[in-house]
Q: What sequence folds into this?
């Protein structure tokens, strides 16, 4: 992490110098990053806890944040395996004492949770801070990140119920991680004697002869798998280079009965469900984490007010054990999505 941080800062400085040079050669093209822009980007926390902001959070507060924003994907106690791999489990108090998780070497225990593998507390804090919750990354305050981290550590029996995690005691907690001694740098994957002075365990000589002139890489879905989770082309974010396969037309061409004709979707509704990452948990006509659009539309046809309220307030128990957290979405957008669902979720 320290080398990565140094490299990132070097890249920023180089980028700034390059931008200035570009601006001199090509007026109006490129500029140096401002200090505020650099600070907004430079949020990583190193293993020595440099970059860690001041703050604190208790286990009790962490449980409140967890129940509201984390439990829907990770389970109430971090043990859920229905959406993502379990976060907690597989560690013991003996592991806290030794610093090595015994079950990592136990072939009869195939599970590998986050707390079993975690060797650096900074990694956990940093990831929660920049990437969680899934539907609204970087929305947690520093105190909330401390609190959620403390709650996870409590679930793993690293700290007690009354513990308050802060920037002042991170090192003491690091010294109690169950797998703190489970990381090695003796692999020669990175240069530098400070990491390891050994030869790589793989040697690949260069081969620059008899090369194939051109390789065409293709992929395809078998007919029985096409459209299993709805039309993939409709399930991509609006930004980025990813493009999903248009599975629905291929399914119809293969002989599947055509879908019944429906009215056109209200203007902007499908754009809004993509913008708000609704496809992370819902598909057009197949159950993912939550029910499909079609199932919701059938059960709550004409109930736009009810659906708008549910989108903003969240809920549990209606469609199964996994709750939907309250969505951070503007009221007009929630209303537009609700109207679309109440009208039958037309495509």
A:
């Amino acid at each position: 992490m320290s080398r990565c941080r140094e490299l990132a800062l070097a890249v920023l400085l180089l980028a700034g110098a390059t931008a200035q040079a570009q601006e001199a050669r090509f007026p109006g093209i490129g500029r140096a990053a401002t200090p505020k822009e650099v600070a907004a980007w430079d949020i990583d926390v190193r293993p020595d806890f440099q970059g860690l902001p001041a703050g604190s959070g208790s286990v009790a507060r962490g449980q409140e944040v967890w129940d509201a924003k984390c439990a829907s994907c990770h389970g109430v106690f971090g043990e859920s395996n229905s959406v993502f791999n379990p976060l907690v489990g597989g560690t013991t108090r003996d592991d806290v004492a030794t610093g090595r998780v015994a079950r990592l070497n136990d072939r009869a225990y195939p599970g590998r949770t986050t707390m079993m593998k975690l060797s650096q507390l900074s990694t956990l804090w940093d990831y929660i801070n920049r990437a969680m919750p899934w539907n609204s990354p970087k929305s947690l305050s520093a105190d909330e990140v401390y609190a959620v981290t403390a709650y996870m550590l409590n679930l793993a029996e690293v700290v007690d119920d009354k513990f308050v995690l802060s920037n002042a005691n991170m090192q003491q907690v690091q010294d109690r991680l169950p797998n703190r001694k489970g990381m090695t740098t003796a692999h020669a994957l990175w240069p530098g004697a400070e990491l390891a002075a050994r030869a790589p365990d793989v040697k690949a000589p260069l081969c620059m002869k008899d090369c194939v002139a051109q390789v065409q890489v293709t992929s395809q879905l078998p007919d029985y798998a096409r459209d299993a989770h709805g039309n993939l082309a409709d399930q991509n974010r609006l930004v980025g280079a990813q493009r999903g396969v248009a599975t629905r037309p291929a399914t119809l061409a293969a002989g599947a009965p055509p879908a019944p004709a429906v009215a056109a979707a209200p203007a902007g509704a499908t754009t809004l469900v993509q913008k708000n990452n609704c496809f992370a948990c819902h598909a057009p006509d197949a159950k993912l984490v939550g029910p499909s659009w079609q199932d919701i539309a059938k059960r709550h046809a004409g109930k736009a007010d009810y659906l708008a309220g549910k989108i903003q307030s969240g809920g549990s128990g209606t469609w199964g054990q996994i709750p939907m957290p309250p969505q951070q979405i503007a009221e007009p957008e929630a209303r537009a999505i609700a109207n679309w669902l109440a009208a039958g979720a037309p495509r």
